[in-house]
Amino acid sequence: MPAPLVAVASLGGTITMTAADGPHGVTPSLTARDLTASVPGLARIADIRAETLFSKPGASLGFGDLLRALDWSRRAAADGAAGIVLVQGTDTLEESGYFLDLHWDRPEPLVVTGAMRPPQQPGADGPANLLAAVLTATAPRSRGLGVLTVLNDEVHAAARVRKDDTTALDAFGSRPFGPLARIHERSVHYAALPLRQPPVPRPRDGGGHPRVALLETFLGDDGELLRLALDARFDGLVISAFGAGHVSAAMAAVVSEAVEKAPVVLASRTGSGSVLSDTYGFPGSEQDLLRRGAVPAGWLDGRKARLLLWSLLAAGEQGDRIRAEFAARAGGTPSTVL
Question: Is the per-residue pLDDT at 123 higher than 80?
Answer without folding.
Answer: yes
